[in-house]
Amino acid sequence: MSLDHETRIAAFDWLKGQVDIHGDVLPRHVLEKGLVHAGRRVPLISPAGIFTPKGLTYPLTITTAPKGPYDDMIGTEGLLSYRYRGSDPQHRDNVGLRQAMRDRVPLIYLYGIMPGRYFVVWPVFIVADDPAHLTFTVEFDDAAVISAGNSKDYELAEPRRAYVTSQVRVRLHQRGFRERVIYAYRTQCAFCRLRHEELLDAAHIIPDTESESRPTVTNGIALCKLHHAAFDSFILGVSPGYVIEVREDVLKERDGPMLQHGIKELHRQKIILPRRDEFMPDKGYLEWRYERFREACT
């Protein structure tokens, strides 16, 4: 087994451990530090979008920078169009991806959701090269396939990758929404100020199952898991004036200190709001949600 292949598998295993700790949106400093394999440090990200760590034969990661110069995108057909490095098809980074395509080498994809935060997907494969449009085509695959040693199972790869890519698009949408909303609320619950990021969610004001819903920060509120569940269950509501209301029957309940301090004492309190006007919850969305809360109170 080559050093490149050993390092690649070690990087996949390391990523799994990091995702177990942080979730599948990783901080840049974690990716820059990377792992240690065969006595050397292997970072997973660099200023270059196509990155081949020292000692490897092929690129290990491809990165879409947040607000970067390239218009990488997952199209409606479920494939990622990834732009060349620069405009020279023979640039060594572009040649490296072409060689990875030829030899069917699995890579890691890092999508910058916002500065310093990257959605991580692996393995991905380069499956087409279009020099006329300066793009590669990338497909996503199931990490379990690589872990099981079936990376050459190409006869079954196409339908599997189509399914995996569709799931990646959903996850990318969800993680992007969460990261932007939590950032807008300064990494705290808008109801109780809890600041443990691992206990925070991005709650939709208009649920994403509704046609009126939009995946924008103005349709989200950062909430801890308890208050997210209470908000979704119409135990708690928020008026268009940003005031929290507790459903009347819950106010009348007598229970332990969690209900008293965690829910009932929020009644008539104002939510914590973003500092930037463009992140403020949309009052039209709040009115939509508040009407349904009032219906639940009757």
Number of DSSP-assigned strands: 14
Radius of gyration using CA atoms only: 23 Å
- Oligomer kind: single chain
Task: Figure out the total of helices.
Answer: 9
At the first level of CATH, the class of the largest domain is: Mainly Beta
> What is the strand content?
15-25%
CATH fold description of the largest domain: PUA domain-like
Account of the protein in words:
It is a single chain. By secondary structure, the protein is an alpha+beta fold. The protein has two domains: 3-181, PUA domain-like (Roll); 188-297, no CATH class. It is 35% helix and 22% strand. It contains nine helices and 14 strands. Strands 1, 4, 5, 6, 7, 8, 9 and 10 form an eight-stranded mixed beta sheet that branches. A hairpin with a 5-residue loop joins strand 6 (73-74) and strand 7 (80-83). The chain is elongated and about 70 Å long. The protein starts with a helix and ends with a helix. The mean pLDDT is 89.
Jot down its keywords.
298 residues; 2 domains; alpha+beta; eight-stranded mixed β-sheet; PUA domain-like; single chain
Write the layout of secondary structure elements.
Elements: H1 3-22, E1 25-27, H2 28-33, E2 35-37, E3 40-42, E4 50-51, E5 61-64, E6 73-74, E7 80-83, H3 92-102, E8 107-114, E9 117-130, E10 135-140, H4 143-147, H5 157-184, E11 200-204, E12 220-224, H6 225-232, E13 236-238, E14 244-246, H7 248-252, H8 257-263, H9 283-297
